[in-house]
Amino acid sequence: CTEENNTLDVKDILSRFTTDVIATCAFGIEINSLSKSESEFYQFGMKSMNRNFDILFKLFLLAAFPIFQRYYCFNIMNRSVVEFFTGIIRSTVEYREKNNIFRLDFLDLLIKLRQNQSILEEGESPGDQSDSSRAGKREGLTIEEITAETYLFFSAGFETTANTIMFCLYELACNDRIQDKLYWEVEEVLDNHEGDISYQALQEMTYMDQI
């Protein structure tokens, strides 16, 4: 609860937080759904997570009878959701390619694969030379394939991360001693880093890592 005794929907807040993080890392965009309650990306993200009876029945049939995967009628994704995410990826990829923008994120790796570029770091070996030469002859990823990869990133981390943090906060609320110890560790580390929540600062929060 807030100071005004207004109840906060922690699940909604955490879902928006994870959406913002994944949208930045995987889709290469900043959506700020925490401050924009009507964020279109967040709304479609939630819509994609809904599983009604029809979708669950299709999932059962696909698991029991894989041959049904050949039929378009067994597409388990909502068409509007597919079109939305595909449109975002298409516009982002085209903008980056046109303006030579590199953000060193997940989408950058997929764009390199789309352009048949190597994603190995300098000094790394691709292994057998014949495998490398064969890889160079392959066609690059399509927009649809890039969309599928980024959506997989989103769906795998959206609910799982939000739920994990939510239960962690619940346990902290039930254990004041642990909560206080964690609070003072965070305060001490941030004081040492002038309030900057950097990677190095997070590495020094050993008790938080244990929680």
Derived from helix and strand composition plus strand pairing, the structural class reads: mainly alpha
* Spatial shape: globular
Order of helices and strands: HHHHHHHHHH
Q: Please report the distance between the alpha carbons of the first and last residues.
A: 23 Å
Helix content: 55-70%
Report Rg. Answer: 22 Å
Query: What's the story with the biggest beta sheet?
Result: none
- What is the count of distinct domains? 2
Beta content: under 5%
What is the helix tally? 10
Outline the low-pLDDT stretches: 128-136
What is the tally of beta strands? 0
The whole-number mean of residue pLDDT values reads 82
Transmembrane segments: 55-72
Organism: Graphocephala atropunctata
Main location: endoplasmic reticulum
Protein name: Cytochrome P450
Would you write up a description of this structure?
With 211 residues, this protein is mostly helical. It is built from 10 helices and no strands. It folds into 2 domains: 10-118 and 141-174, no CATH class; 175-210, no CATH class. The chain has helices at residues 10-27, 40-49, 53-64, 79-99, 106-114, 129-136, 143-174, 176-192, 199-203, 206-210. Helix 1 (10-27) packs antiparallel against helix 7 (143-174) and helix 4 crosses helix 7. The longest helix is centred in the last third of the chain and has 32 residues, at 143-174.
